[in-house]
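For the sake of transparency, this paper describes our internal protein records without simplification. The tokens are whole numbers drawn from a learned vocabulary of local backbone shapes. One such record is reproduced below, unchanged from the form in which we store it.

. . .
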Amino acid sequence: MNPDFPLDQSAPRGGQPAFWVGPRHLAGDDGRLYDSVADTLSGLGWTSLTIVRGRQEPDEEPEDRQVLRSTVLHIAPDARCWAQWSLADEPFSLGELPIAWQISARAETSSPIAQWSAYFTGDVPGEAVSDFLLALDAHDQPAVSLAGPQLVLDAVVAHGWFRDIDPSRAEATDPTFTSHIGLGEVAPLIQDADPRALTTAADETGPPGWQAWAQPALGAPCLWVAAFAAGVPHDLVAAFAASLSSTEPVLRRVLPEATRELLLRAPAG
């Protein structure tokens, strides 16, 4: 694939040429993170609900109403898992990037709270989020881990990523040192029903969770961030990690400006 092949991003989306690009973890979401993931959820039979909050002035036509905040909620058929598209609401950020998808699961439908949540900002490759959801949908016990953390590291190492030289650190990075995944302290506000997380004092470290991110250059802003609460089963994180680090090219029309020069690409079709 040719990284210098011209790509006219000023053209209308419908007229933009498609390219096969890699590596996947730097390819962005093609501006379709909602659509690609929502299509996966629809195919799995999840129900979608839209909550719109806005403001309408007196005598204003309904179509002129100002939509201030909106949320789309997708619920699994057994109601134990759900995925929320909340980019418009921007409830909080990871790596200074607003959350786009929040995916949660509970052990039983009788439980009023999520057992765990996972969070994805924009430009996380949609393929990786979809593969995480496919694994979640197929999981008989979405709140129970079926493997240890080594499975996550094995998934990326199998695709050429490097483990940290310190064997005590559950971390890995891609060969260009731009993307990383590791098990450690999670960001504030990550929802987890683990009692240790609920009782952790401000000056204490809670149970570790997985985090992944891409930083195109040292000191540069992150391209994307993903965070998993401590309770997210390692096998589900491994499904995300395997897809994220996959060496298979992905189809894109819109490339992230920050990684455009780092990508290999070839015309599709």
The two ends are 13 Å apart (CA to CA). DSSP finds five helices and 14 strands in the chain.
